[in-house]
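Data card: per-record layout.
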Amino acid sequence: MDRFTVPTRYWHTLDDGRVQCDVCPRACKLRDGQKGVCFVRAREGEGVVLRSYGRSSGFCVDPVEKKPLNHFLPGSSTFSFGTAGCNLACRFCQNWDVTKSKEIDTLADEASPETIARAATDLGCRSVAFTYNDPTIFLEYAIDVADACHDRGLSAVAVTAGYICPEPRADFYAHLDAANVDLKGFTEDFYRHTCGADLGVVLESLEYLRHDTDVWLELTTLLIPGLNDGDAELDTMTTWVVEHLGPDVPMHFSAFHPDYRMVDRTPTPPETLTRARHIARCNGVRYAYTGNVHDRDGQATLCHGCGAIVVERDWYTIGDYGLDDHGYCRLCGVRVPGVFDGPAEGWGTKRLPRCPEPPPGRERHVTVRPSAVAGAFYPADADELRAVLAQCFTAAVAPPSDPTVPKALVVPHAGLPYSGPVAASAYLRIRPGRSTIRQVVLLGPSHRVPFRGLASSGADTWATPLGLVPLDTEASRELGDFPWVSVADATHAPEHSLEVQLPFLQTVLEDFELLPLLTGHATTDEVASVLDVLWSGPETVIVVSTDLSHYHDYAAAVNLDCRTAAAITALRTDDIDDADACGAHSLRGLLQAGRSRNLEVEQLDLRNSGDTAGDRHRVVGYGAFALA
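The structure for this 628-residue chain is written out next.
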């Protein structure tokens, strides 16, 4: 076994020699070397092992309300992480790039339980959340992380489907402080055909959590138009919750967006969430919330004694707070159920602590994201790097004598000997704006760490051999209202797609601040809406980092890249997918934002590694484009 593989205890041997995993009701029956449906539990020898211990698909700091938990330390931050795989088969999975992964490379980050607990403490988090995929399948790892958190005074939170067998369920939940359980619908047909699970098992887990543990419990239902959002089903569900769990268990109704195997469904209208909340409240649910929308009324916590707003919310922004440190309403004295210890102070919408002003005579501590690929994608020596950049600009396509400074660029991100001349063709176009441009919004794909949405950086500066690039932390905070944008420094740490652009920017611009955004699995609308907020005036330039086709022979690559270039210049977002451009998610969002502003796209350069580096057997395509 390697260091990421550990033996487990919940399994037994069958009469035919197979071994049955007993963690979840799927009861996978395995011969030696076979993996379970979850992918991370497998048979080795005479038992079942966990193959993802100490490995994660990524980390980020989130508002605890994003889990969602509205009655568990509201206003605090939680350190979120997950692994790969899942024991359900939800056709609408919003984290499918992680949960459906069958590649161990998805587990890009190594972190022991103690490392996770220490990182959460250092970042000022109050809890650690097992999320992105269900912790049921990495039970042993989750338990050890929870124990390490408790040793540091942190809480442990699970976001789970509750699809787990009784014995491991008792073991796992004994280590938790809070859980949000996805009650995905309320018919066996929906669970069986849409999720690959059984409703009855989930209901048993809910009753166990509510009546046999001290775990704080909240529920979430993702409402999918035409599948689980009917009045009758919502009426039956919420009535069951009140009768079997009680009126004080909070329920969250969140909005579906088309994803994975349900791209043909329409997004959930906000009116559906409001209707579901109304049905729940009429049936006696005291704390019913809407999610994934701006809805102050639907997201406020009301005192069930006097009806006053005791926690005001707008998405993840906390406003007025009317509870004392123990959760009692300051107006009428009635206690609101939950875990409270007073409002968090000094937090932004992303819940990363704002740096206070240093005492007189002391410098403020500045966090630096060090270079990850200097010495690999570009030279680590500053003088050598400048010489290579000069060669790239010499080999670039020269701009016209009086070029218009574009609003946005599309540039490649391979090593400088390969894509550098093509990237330089784009950067030459913004050099005339060097005294005007003060902000660069830089987007690119995450190659090492799959995740959902977009990831900003919590650092103050990024380093290259040419010096430090300051980050626009104020602009980053403006994105706190978007639930699909999170701070994820561990995701940025190994990534090259953004970093390789910095030496070019440091060369062609003067004083500027950087807003780096890695894009995971994000919709075109999500990326475009972020760009809408950041668009600004001529002081801001937007750069999308993407290569084009990968590893075709030269002739095939030329054909594919010409087709993709035509789609880019025509702003045809639907004709560009991941096989055409590794940064397709960022690229489509930029093109949609540009189309809405009647911008035109100019192709500046189109080559591949066979043109720049010589080998034409397996090439990567590179394109440079300007939007103006």
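Known properties of this structure: DSSP finds 18 helices and 31 strands in the chain. Residues 97-108, 346-365 have pLDDT under 50 and may be disordered.

See the next section for split statistics.
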